[in-house]
Structure formats: C-alpha cells, structure tokens
Specification:
With 205 residues, the protein is α+β, with helices and mostly antiparallel strands. It has five helices and eight strands; from the N terminus they run αααββββαβββαβ. Helices cover 37% and strands 28% of the residues. The longest helix has 21 residues. It is elongated.
Length: 205
C-alpha cells in the first residue's frame, strides 16, 4: 500500500499545479508555488529522486494533474520472458517506458521493445493496467498507471539499446535481479499466468 507521506506529497503537488493553472491573484500564485516547493522537499527527502530532477519534472508540467502512464511489453519465446538490463541500475525489466505524445499504447510497446532489445514485434492485446501504488515498488514522486501489453516477435535480433546493456529470455525459476522501479516479481509472475492461461481476463486495478 502507498505510504501516507507519499500520498500526501503527491496530493500537495497536484493541488499546487492545478492552482497555478487557474489562479490569477498574485498572492494565490505565491501560495501555490510555496505548496509545490513543500511537496518537492518531501519527495526529495524520502525518495531516491534528486531535488533538481523533481523540480524540473514538476516545473515542466502544466495544466490539470493526471497520472503518468508506463507501458511494458510482455514478450515470450520458448516459455521464457524477454527482459532487458537497465543501464541506470544494472537490473532487469520488461521492455518499456513512459508513454509518448503521438503514440498509442500498442505503438509504444512495439517501439520500446525494438529500441531496448532489438526485436521487432506486433502488439497483440492488453493484459493488465496496474496502479503502481498498489504494488511493491519503491516510493516514487509520480502517480503511475502501468500498462502491460502482450507482443509477439516478428523479426529482428537481440541487440541492447541506448538505455539497456543486455537482452535475454528467462524462465520463471531463473529470473535475474529485477528493476523493481519498473516491474516487480509479482508482476512478472502475473505475466507468466497469461502465458499458461491465454484466456485469462484483463486485470485492472
């Protein structure tokens, strides 16, 4: 479950950003700026994200606050799941990343898989939409929805990308250290349930 301080800090940030979007009074703007600064201080103190990075992320965002969307491609071959090693922490994750403007969820899954693993894929179907706060991820300054999309390999070969250093397929009993910021053991286990039961319904938090 989400930590209370984390939930409060995110709500503070959301209120501040929404207030800055619609406020016209100079004193109200100052108060919302102060509220946003307080949320940044809390998040920088208790998460692994730096103060400057949080400030930049919040300052570059505008309008009504909405959750960020993380897309993960679920790719199987010979009953093993495709994982890539992240350069940022040396641990492994399903290919994916933040959704980009102008791309559909399926297009993001295909694009990220090609860029991070070298494999060309076709997106098949949505498997799950999970709210990061309900799963065992490290504290994060963002409220994130994670979409897991089943993809099939149609070409290419294993080649690491700009953000990855290795590519591999792993059975459920031989998983490497996972990048828990991106995917947890429970989430990988859930993806294997879809491998063994293709008719399993989509899960939505």
């Amino acid at each position: 479950m989400e930590l209370k301080w984390l939930d409060w800090a995110k709500q503070m940030q959301a209120m501040a950003q929404t207030g800055l979007t619609y406020a016209t009074d100079v004193y109200d703007i100052e108060r919302y700026e102060a509220l946003r600064q307080m949320s940044i201080e809390i998040l920088a103190e208790y998460t692994s994200v730096s103060h400057d990075k949080i400030s930049l992320a919040f300052a570059s965002d505008n309008g009504y606050t909405t959750p960020k969307v993380d897309i993960r491609a679920v790719v199987f071959q010979d009953n093993k799941i495709l994982l890539v090693r992240e350069k940022v922490d040396g641990a492994w994750s399903m290919p994916g990343g933040w959704s980009d403007i102008g791309y559909s969820p399926k297009e993001i899954a295909v694009k990220e898989t090609q860029e991070e693993s070298g494999f060309d894929t076709a997106a098949v179907r949505l498997l799950a939409v999970l709210d990061k706060k309900f799963h065992n991820h490290p504290p994060s300054p963002y409220h994130v929805y994670k979409m897991f999309i089943l993809c099939e390999i149609i070409g290419g070969k294993a080649i690491a990308g700009v953000e990855t250093s290795d590519v591999g397929f792993f059975g459920l009993d031989e998983l490497p250290e996972l990048s828990v910021e991106r995917n947890t053991l429970e989430q990988v286990q859930l993806m294997f349930e879809y491998l063994h039961n293709p008719n399993k319904e989509v899960i939505v938090d």
